[in-house]
Amino acid sequence: MNFVEELRWRGMVHDVMPGTEELLLKGQTSGYLGIDPTADSLHIGHLVGVMMLKHLQRSGHTPVALIGGATGMIGDPSMKSAERNLLDEATLRHNQEAIKQQLARFLDFESDIPNRAILVNNYDWMKDYSFLNFIRDIGKHLTVNYMMAKDSVKKRLSGESSEGMSFTEFSYQLLQGYDFLHLYREKGVRLQVGGSDQWGNITTGTELIRRVEGGEAFALVCPLITKADGGKFGKTESGNVWLDRRYTTPYQFYQFWLNVSDADAEKYIKIFTSLTRDEIESLVSEQQAAPHLRPLQKRLAEEVTVMV
Known about the structure:
Blueprint: H1 3-9, E1 15-16, H2 20-26, E2 30-35, H3 47-58, E3 62-67, H4 69-72, H5 89-103, E4 118-121, H6 123-126, H7 131-137, H8 144-148, H9 151-157, H10 167-170, H11 172-187, E5 189-195, H12 199-213, E6 218-222, E7 235-236, E8 239-240, H13 250-258, H14 262-272, H15 277-289, H16 295-307
Parallel strand pairs: 2-3, 2-5, 3-4, 5-6
Antiparallel strand pairs: 1-6, 7-8
Helix pairs in contact: 11-12, 13-16, 14-15, 14-16
C-alpha cells in the first residue's frame, strides 16, 4: 500500500514535503506523531493523526506515537491565543498510560511484526537536559529570524492576540524540533505527521536535522477537519467528544457520528474508517439513492464506535 496515495484519496493530505513519497516507497521507515497528554483520554480531534499512524503501519512502516510530556508542560502556541495549564509529572504518567491503552485499539504495539508500533515520551530525554546545554547544542543552529517567520509565532506577535507570547512558548518549536532530531538519531525516524497547524514546528525539525546531522527528514500534514457549515469539528454543546466512556458515553459517541450532515459523512467516512475505496463508493451511491435512510452516517457511526 502506498501511504501518501492512500491518504490522498481519503482527503488527508494538506501539505507534504517533496521526496516524502519516494522515501516511503524505497523501504521500511519510521514516522511519528506528537500527542499532547493534557488529559487522560484522547478526543476525536486526535483521531485524524492516529488514523495517519494506522495507515502508516498498514503500509509496512513503523508508527511512533510521541507523548509530549515535556512539551505538554510548556504549551504549543500553534493556533492558540492563550497559554495552557502546565502539568505535573504524576498526572503526565497517568495520562500517558491511559492514552497508550486507547492507541492500542488502532496500532499494533504487541505482536512480532517488524513494524510494531512504538510509544515514547519526550519528557524522558528532556528532563535531564540542562538549559545551558540545550541552548548551546540546539539553539545555535536556528536564527531568531527563522523562528519568527513561522505563522504560529507571527499570529501571536501581531495585533490578533492581546496576550503577546512568552519566551517559554517561543522556545516550543525548538523543543519539538529537537524531538524530531532525537528520534532521527535514536530510532531512525525520517517522517513526522500532524495537523496543518503543525507545519511550522515540523519543518523546524527537518531543518534542525539538516543543519546538525546533514540528514534528510520529511513532513506530511493533514488538513484541519471542518464541518460543511464551517463550524468546528469534534465539539458539541457539552464540549469535546472523548474516546473514554467515562467522559462521553458510547451512546453519545455513536449519536455524534450519526447526526453529521450528508456532506460531512461522505468526507468523514474516508478519514475516520479503514473502509476501502470500493466500499465507500457503494455507500455513497446508496446514500444518493435513499438519503433518508442515512446509510453513510449509520456505517460511519458503527465503524468508529466499534473501533474506539
